[in-house]
């Protein structure tokens, strides 16, 4: 509750004292006027006497009525009401002064401050609204700072990842341009290195474009009914040749069959392609990649798992961060950009789902949970 200052309490006391004095003077004046009117009018006096005679009790004729008492009681009640109204009005003014003072303090840039007290009546709605507004503004500012920081980090990371292969391309092509080679084999070697670096840049640019596209507010999502089992079969088939070269088998299972969900098939295909590609690149020593889908009530759970090299526990929680690479395996030599899993998370969020990762000595698995039904207007 609001605590008044000593000065405000003194002011409130003198306000009440002055009101009582003024009301006392008014009461004396009214009583004097009423008595004068009654004494100067014999008809009124006789009427009052008749009423008094009719309102007696017992043999002792105890008087239970007196116009003086009624007038005094009415005046006291009116005085109490006026006094209460004036003190309450003054108290509300003090409350308003405190609220305005708090608003001025917040407006000076103290956005971490909130109006700490509570009051009765409609002014409490003002306090609640002000605090909620400041919370919203603070959160918006924090999100804006985080967004600016994220953009700066994105530019820094992209610049670094583009500069490295670009430097190699310029360097090897410069050797050819300056005829600093011994044989035609050297030219082929330098050209091949430059070509590989150019492909690395191309992959980074494509992943960056895809990432920024799914990160944009209002990113278009073309919702339709998708046979999830068939989509996973297509994804597995597209990587079958590469998996065979690495001695890995891709297996797909779906329960029930068919399993239909509402989703964007193009984005969903990119999501699971990224997860399978991630398993092929970093699942060293794996013999299989399992794609399994199972409906659980109003949700469907899809797991992409391999029995390859374990991901360190301290790295698992960072896997979905942009440009993050596990140093022991997720390096640029594999062609990874560090954006594949960030794209996966963004696509999952567009579909109002979730994605998690787990890894132990037996298996590394990425688990995607999606709602079976999507509502078009809810998708950003």
Automatic annotation (TrEMBL):
In what residue span(s) does the Histidine kinase domain sit? 157-374
Extract the SUPFAM superfamilies matched here: ATPase domain of HSP90 chaperone/DNA topoisomerase II/histidine kinase (SSF55874), Homodimeric domain of signal transducing histidine kinase (SSF47384)
Enzyme Commission number: 2.7.13.3
Q: Provide the protein's localization.
A: Cell membrane
PROSITE patterns for this protein: HIS_KIN
Topology of the protein relative to the lipid bilayer: Multi-pass membrane protein
Q: What keywords is this UniProt entry annotated with?
A: ATP-binding, Cell membrane, Kinase, Membrane, Nucleotide-binding, Phosphoprotein, Transferase, Transmembrane, Transmembrane helix, Two-component regulatory system
Membrane-traversing stretches: 12-34, 70-88
User: Main site of residence?
Assistant: membrane
GO process annotations (BP): phosphorelay signal transduction system
| InterPro entries in alphabetical order | HATPase_C_sf (IPR036890), HATPase_dom (IPR003594), His_kinase_dom (IPR005467), HisK_dim/P_dom (IPR003661), HisK_dim/P_sf (IPR036097), HssS/ArlS-like (IPR050398), Sig_transdc_His_kin-like_C (IPR004358)
Recorded catalytic reaction(s): these are: ATP + protein L-histidine = ADP + protein N-phospho-L-histidine
One cellular component (GO) term of this entry: plasma membrane
The molecular function terms of the Gene Ontology recorded here are:
ATP binding; protein histidine kinase activity
Would the keyword Phosphoprotein be found if you checked this record's keyword annotation? yes
What Gene3D superfamilies has UniProt attached to this entry?
1.10.287.130, Histidine kinase-like ATPase, C-terminal domain
PANTHER family registered for this protein in UniProt:
SENSOR HISTIDINE KINASE CPXA
> Which protein is depicted?
histidine kinase
């Amino acid at each position: 509750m609001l605590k008044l200052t000593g000065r405000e309490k003194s002011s409130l006391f003198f306000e009440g004292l002055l009101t009582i004095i003024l009301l006392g003077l008014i009461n004396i004046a009214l009583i004097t006027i009423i008595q004068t009117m009654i004494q100067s009018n014999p008809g009124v006096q006789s009427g009052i006497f008749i009423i008094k005679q009719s309102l007696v009790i017992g043999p002792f004729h105890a008087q239970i009525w007196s116009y003086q008492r009624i007038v005094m009681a009415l005046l006291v009640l009116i005085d109490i009401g006026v006094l209460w109204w004036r003190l309450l009005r003054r108290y509300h003014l003090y409350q308003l002064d405190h609220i305005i003072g708090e608003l001025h303090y917040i407006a000076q840039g103290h956005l971490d401050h909130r109006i700490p007290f509570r009051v009765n009546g409609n002014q409490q709605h003002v306090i609640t609204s002000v605090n909620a507004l400041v919370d919203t503004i603070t959160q918006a500012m924090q999100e804006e700072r985080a967004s600016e920081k994220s953009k700066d980090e994105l530019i820094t990371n992209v610049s670094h990842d583009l500069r490295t292969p670009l430097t190699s391309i310029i360097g090897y092509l410069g050797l050819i341009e300056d005829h600093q080679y011994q044989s035609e084999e050297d030219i082929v070697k330098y050209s091949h290195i430059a070509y590989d670096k150019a492909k690395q840049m191309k992959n980074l640019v494509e992943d960056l474009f895809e990432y920024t596209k799914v990160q944009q507010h209002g990113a278009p999502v073309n919702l339709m009914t998708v046979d999830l089992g068939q989509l996973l079969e297509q994804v597995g088939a597209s990587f079958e040749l590469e998996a065979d070269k690495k001695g890995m088998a891709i297996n797909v299972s779906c329960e029930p069959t068919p399993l239909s969900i509402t989703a964007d098939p193009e984005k969903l295909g990119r999501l699971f392609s990224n997860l399978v590609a991630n398993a092929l690149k970093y699942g060293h020593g794996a013999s299989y990649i399992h794609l399994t889908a199972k409906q659980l009530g109003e949700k469907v759970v899809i797991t992409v798992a391999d029995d390859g090299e374990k991901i360190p526990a301290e790295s698992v929680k960072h896997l979905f961060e942009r440009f993050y690479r596990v140093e022991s395996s997720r390096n640029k030599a594999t062609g990874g950009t560090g954006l594949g899993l960030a794209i996966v998370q963004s696509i999952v969020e567009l579909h109002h789902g979730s994605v998690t990762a787990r890894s132990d000595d037996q298996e590394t698995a990425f688990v995607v949970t999606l709602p079976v039904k999507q509502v078009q207007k809810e998708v950003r």
